[in-house]
Design brief:
single chain, 117 residues, globular
């Protein structure tokens, strides 16, 4: 992963297009490219089968949020830490982790212009 000045995004937020998101992921989270490609193929198949763009729109929204978080190493680390706590903590820790994960995702949704939960 590319390094950045403390608290600064690694790259600017790309436009919410398949090509721009793929390029961003290749720069900041190349290990996620196989999942990106697999999920893109699934969304495209679902869109074709249903003659509906909703699966592709959901795909783009999901990956725009992912890129928004991953381009900020501090936010990505916080998310991973809370996900680990949700899996391994007791009930109270899991509730707090769920709340924090929701906050991080809500902030990312708002930042990329998507409605929050």
């Amino acid at each position: 992963m590319t390094t950045s000045a403390a608290g600064q995004p690694l790259i600017p937020q790309p436009p919410a297009t398949v090509a721009a998101l793929r390029q961003a992921i290749s720069q900041i989270a190349p290990a996620a490219l196989p999942a990106f490609t697999r999920e893109l193929d699934q969304a495209a198949d679902q869109s074709r089968q249903g003659s509906d763009l909703a699966p592709l729109q959901r795909f783009i929204a999901q990956w725009a949020v992912y890129v928004h978080i991953q381009r900020r190493p501090d936010a990505a680390a916080d998310l991973r830490r809370w996900e680990d706590t949700a899996e391994s903590g007791d009930a109270a820790q899991a509730r707090q982790a769920a709340s924090e994960i929701g906050r991080i995702l809500d902030e990312a949704h708002a930042a990329v212009g998507l409605p929050t939960r």
